[in-house]
Automatic annotation (TrEMBL):
Protein name, as recorded: Coenzyme F420:L-glutamate ligase-like domain-containing protein
InterPro entries: F420-0_gamma-glut_ligase-dom
Domain Coenzyme F420:L-glutamate ligase-like: 7-200
Source organism: Candidatus Kaiserbacteria bacterium RIFCSPHIGHO2_01_FULL_54_36b
An annotated Gene Ontology molecular function: coenzyme F420-0:L-glutamate ligase activity
PANTHER family: COENZYME F420:L-GLUTAMATE LIGASE (PTHR47917:SF1), PTHR47917
Pfam families: F420_ligase (PF01996)
Amino acid sequence: MKVKSAKTHIFKKNDDLVAFITHHVPKLKNGSVLAVTSKIVALAEGAVVQTPTTRAKEAIIRAESEWQLQAKYGKITLKDGLLMWNAGIDESNAKGNIILLPKDPFTNARKLRLWLRRHYKLKKLGVVITDSRVMPMRAGVVGVALGYAGFKGLRDYRGKKDIFGRRMKFTQTNIADSLATAAILTMGEGKEQQPLAIIEDAPVEFCDKVNRKELIIAPEDDMYRPLFKISKRKKK
């Protein structure tokens, strides 16, 4: 698998995302997966809030999340089936403002894939909208796929045999988040100015329709639930 990021000019609020991508990625190989940071997708939607007061910022986090838990440096929140920090709002590289997450990353990915397949004249193309997250008890960020299109996001090994003939009961591979992590590793998190990454020869199964809920685990089935005590109560 090959992953290469693309150096770009600065993407601004309400810029044309497709024009931006096709300008900086002149060619795509059939069977590629294009990773796009959620920040520029949100900027294309105009999802930017001018620097608010601390109280206003907390109100934004409440409005953008379904559940929240106060932690040492902010809030752990639940949004669209994902646990994330402060509902995913981003203040880095935002010129003093706050950038929200895209409204519907799966729809964004699907539309981008349709437009880009036509532009590049490709049969097989995947698109993944990436963000970064912190794993419990681990330093540094890794990638997460907020939305994707064109490939199956989960590989299921349950019921299959391992090398010694033992049937596996729980193992599944999260393809979408793995691709997002690989992309983010090359994109960087600082002033690299590389919001796009091209992934070639990835071991994915391409498809026209994806199940946007295939990676979501119900809170009552999550092995980490005892740490968070997530309930079905509405946010405060």
